[in-house]
Write a structure and sequence with these properties.
heterodimer; A: about 900 residues; B: about 110 residues; alpha+beta
Chain lengths: ~900, ~110
Amino acid sequence: MIPPQDDEIRAEIEFHLAARAESLMAEGWAEEDAWREARRRFGNRERVRTDMEREIQLGRWLMGWRRIMDGLAMDLRVGLRRWRRDPVTAVLAVLTLALGIGASTAIFSLVYGVLLRPLPYTEPDELAALWVDVTERGGPDREWFSFANLHDIREQVSGFQEVGVYSGWGPVLTGRGSPVQLAGAAISAGFLDEVLGVEPARGRFFTDAEDVADGPAVVVVSHPFWRETLGAPASLDGVDLTLSGLTFRVIGVLPEGFRSPVQGGSDVWRPIQVDPVAVADLRGNFSWRAIARLAPGVPLDRARSELAALAARLQVTYPESNTGMAFTATDLRSDLVANARTGLLLLLGMVGLVLLMASVNVANLLVARNSRRQATFAIRAALGSGRGRQLRQLFVETLIPALAGGALGLLLAAWGTGILVALAPAGTPRLDAVETDLRVLLAGLSVTAAVALFTGLLPGLGAARTDLRSALATQNRGGSGSAGSRLRQGLVVVQVSLAVALLTTASLLARSLTQLQTVDLGYEPESVTTFFLGLPGEAYQDRQARAAFLTELEPRLAALPGVEAAGSVSSLPLAGFDEDTDFNVDGRPPPEPGEPRAAWVRRITPGYTRAMGLTLVTGRAIDERDQAGTPRVVLVNETLAERYFPGANPVGQRLDFGAPGNPLPFEIVGVVRNVRQFGVRDDWRSAVYLANAQFPAFSSFFTLKVAPGLEPTSVIPAARAAVAELDPGLAVTGVQTMQALVDERLGSERFLAWLLGGFAALALLLASIGLYGVVNHAVTSRLREVAVRVAMGAGASEIRRRVVARSLGPVASGLVVGAVVAWFAARAAESVLYGVSPADPVSFAVTAAILMIVAVAAATGPAIRASRVPPMRILRDE
Amino acid sequence: MTDASLTLLKGTVDLLILAALADDVERHGYGIAEWIGASTGGDLLLEEGTLYPALHRLRRKGLIDARWGTSENNRRARFYRLTDKGRKARETGRAQWERYARAVSSALRPGEAG
């Protein structure tokens, strides 16, 4: 059929032509000529026709659009009016959604920034962190490399396009005000450009020609360093730095916002300048780390198998140094956040549960609201209001609190993200990458939309299915067994079970936090302040000079007013690192492959054991008698003593730290208690303490035990003066109390426990709102039944008991389902628990008890209302 | 005639249609074409067909109304009439046009332009 508009267009054009032709004929034109002239004056008919069609079509669309918008506006007006009549439900729904969306967006921002956001380097997925795994010999699984092993990897693993080698470098900057300790790194030539894919903001990066032994003294500096310390010079020509006494030429500046993958950040970078030939046989030390870029298209697994094959070859070629040594590669992002991962994913899971609960709660509120209006819906449907029309109206109506809740939730999220970042434990990696960004915002919005759809359509479908007769009938009878009420009971079961899961996990974490807070650290952090002192290699190359400096400094520090004891250690507990070495018990055959033979090594001065409060189990501590010329001595920890000398006294025995054929024996003079070196939940490993005078370190942590009641850091100015008196070129840095270090380590545990506790409280609140709603609604719809009971002589307390007991039905089911969910949640949380079993009966019992109390409390209000029902009025009203 | 005629500037058709329907006169498309021809003294070259898309555009914008009726010689024709909105648009359009024309012609007058 031709659309009528086509007819109209044709008719209009026909009329015009006819009128024109007639008028021409009246002027005396011949008929044929007149028609031809009329058509000529009219112009291109086809074009006119299509132009007209387009205008008409556009007009229709606009009209349709306007009609839809008008309809929406009306739905909105009606929706708003309806919500004004039921403000309590509206406020509860908006708040529930805002809390759920706000909490989940904030947590998602944190998790996204820390775990998921790509690293700010070119093709970050091609980057891998390389490690030496020496667990087979009783060492750590993430050990650093010897240069020789790393050199072989660079030469022989084809799966890597480039292997960037780096090592820590802590020079002291002088000549620009007082000495400043810098965080630096020595890197191989291609590290910044070829591995990370970063371009210099100014100048250039290192060339291969510069990265050779005895190469030029050049540095690249960070953007903040260029701006603040160098004063943002436009040209780098002639800009020099005095670093630990040597002059370096500044050749390049990193781009603004560059984030160093080297933990702790870096102000200055210099080339490593190592001759691989000169160190080819030094495979036993561990001073280098590496980040590699995979060759294009090569999967990480292929590089891994190449690494494994190389490690096996090297074990054969260099059995003394490489036995039990494996090489591993982890993608860089996972590597950086390895420790934070479980906790954050746990949080994300919990927040998902809370969001689910919020949705269930809103659904519950809306089902209750709509069940009160079922008769209205049915009547409206019977009067001819279409099902689609009613559904749309309902949808718009539910969209109102959903969008309001979403908007409020996003505000909460922006605010909450800031708070989370501020509260997050200091050690959290990549915290600076956390922001409420566009994608997180979109994630939050889509959550809002999903919740709106869920909550809008669930009650909508229920309501639209209603037929008039049964709706009117249940309205009169009170609808106790209606589909809506069964649905709501089911929702309560879901809510209670989610709350059980959250509450159980939270109490497990709370219990493990208490365990951690009372854990035996192996030392006494109270009243101890620490600082870091690096002795620049250039001035302290001579080991005698290093030993002499500390021997000279220690009594001066100990003599400061308020200081009770002073000592130093090469790797402080909780400072984040340790040295390790291989050893053998003197007089025993060399260890078999796979037999542990590594121990942590700490070099201490005589005052250290006293200042840190280490407990001597047997023998003596290292003291002033142990000097460079006296017999070499070693102090061992309990784990080493028990593992290698079970049931025997190790004092007087000897440990050999030399290479095969080149023994270096030390006599064990004492045994000390184990120390938590890396964290409060540290596992025990073998550890030894050497005399710094016999094996002087380049850098030391000083520990000062101050008099009780004195602020520990108050002695630092005097300590600084004492250091400057001996060598004014040294920088005292990293001042921290031992207690602060311990608190920082506990901080992440506390953070997680508090957050989960908060979520559990939120979950409990949501569950009780839901329960209250259901019980209240049940009481309202059973008023008649209650009235009959009262009329038959039931006492108020019996009515109350009955209402409460009936409400506990869904709670009991929820407890059972929740226990199962909680068991899985606890399994997932197992790795962050400490000293508590995931099946801890106390946590489960406490949860059940709390939920029962909350359930009874939520049911009590409606129960009291039921018991005060005036029976005659209710019965008369019907 | 063709040489002396002027090609219409864009947007002028709309204004001419509004002018043709002034004073609450109701006209069909042909009538509007005739009115334009008569009141411009035949100086404007108008492809008569271009009136029709313009009429429908004005209708979509709500400046004119349309209804089917019977013409003088008993044919079915679509008649157009200004709406309130159209009357206002005609006033502002005319004022704008006059300002524009004055500006252009004063600029084009030889010897007087700055």
